[in-house]
Amino acid sequence: MRLAIITAVLTMAGIASLLYRVAEPSAAVDLQAKKIGQAISCIGLTLTDSALYMNGGGKDFSITVPASGVYPSSIPDGMIWIPGGEYSMGGVNPHGMEQGGKETMNDARPVHRVFVSPFFMDATEVTNKEFAAFVKATGYVTVAEQKPTKEEFPDVPDNKLIAGSAVFTATTLRDLSNPYGWWTYVNGADWQHPEGPQSSISDKDDYPVVHISWQDAAAFAKWAGKRLPTEAEWEFAARGNKAGELYSWGNTLHINNKWMANTYQGTFPKHDAGEDGYAGTAPVKKFAPNAFGLYDMAGNVWEWCSDWYSHDYYHSLRSTNIARNPTGPNESDDPAEPGSKKKVQRGGSFLCTDQYCTRYMVGTRGKGEWRSATNHLGFRCVKDLPK
Ligand SMILES: [Ca+2]
What we know:
CATH architecture: Alpha-Beta Complex
Strand content: 15-25%
Helix content: 10-25%
Bound molecules: calcium ion
CATH class: Alpha Beta
Largest sheet: 4 strands, mixed
Radius of gyration: 20 Å
Number of strands: 17
Strand order of the largest sheet: 1-3-4-13
Distance between the termini: 58 Å
Structural class: alpha+beta
CATH superfamily: paralog of FGE (formylglycine-generating enzyme)
Order of helices and strands: HHHHEEEEEHEEHHEEEEEHEEEEE
CATH topology: paralog of FGE (formylglycine-generating enzyme)
């Protein structure tokens, strides 16, 4: 029955019907519910977690000390040299702040001291044009383009195992406690068809590629002679040698009344007003870069990191004076979805808003199952300096 519903959707009435159905408790065997739950970032943390992790936020930040390295003699095309150094990693509790949103971001604390070595980082998110070159050279097929396997979804009937990915769907539903309300698993949605089979990227060469699982991102990085950033590298790069600021550009959401990143304005999740110039994704480099020259380190699309996600990883580093080049926990641990293998995502997306999720704030964290994707999820790569 669900297949019939899904293939018949995409009238508003149909979507509403589907959404109510995927939200049912019995949806545990539903591929759509599973793929959405595994893919989206903003679920699972509660106010009651605060007692464990709250340490006051801002007072825990100390100045960033850049590493004493030598500026490299050459920098790979499209990349930025990140000097590395010692910094305070993590984020404050923004709940209750002006424009702070509704979540306490408990997994981003305690703030702790970290050292990262110098590296190069892509100036922008990987674009459709760049990903197309990879696919042309290798014949690579992304996870979203493949039929989900019985091994991964043993409870899902064969005829429901259909290739696709999670797509944000505007809705008048106003229950913000249920993200399944604005996500639809769309058959045939993939990087070349971001909103589904009828959509295309023919005029979107410079847009960030989306519907990219961690496995896909890692494959691209390997082909490009690069790798995915560790979470610690990503945050060091996003902070741009600043300490404890709320955003990758400073401490206020706007500068000179201008939006500093592609986020969500309007009424979430009903209407993306695009006051920042873009409803949905934006081409890369449309907003000012941060102090290192990196574009879109907040908003636009989420970006994969190499680390497994654990909600209490920072807590586990508490006894370490300085964590040197941390690479994350040995395995994933997300109490919201036990057993799901999740990797870290950073930066937030065009869907972030203080009406719901403010993970465009620089120290905050996201996560997603490593073989799942959405239309607000992409990546960028890093590269080590020559030995
Ligand atoms: Ca926008």
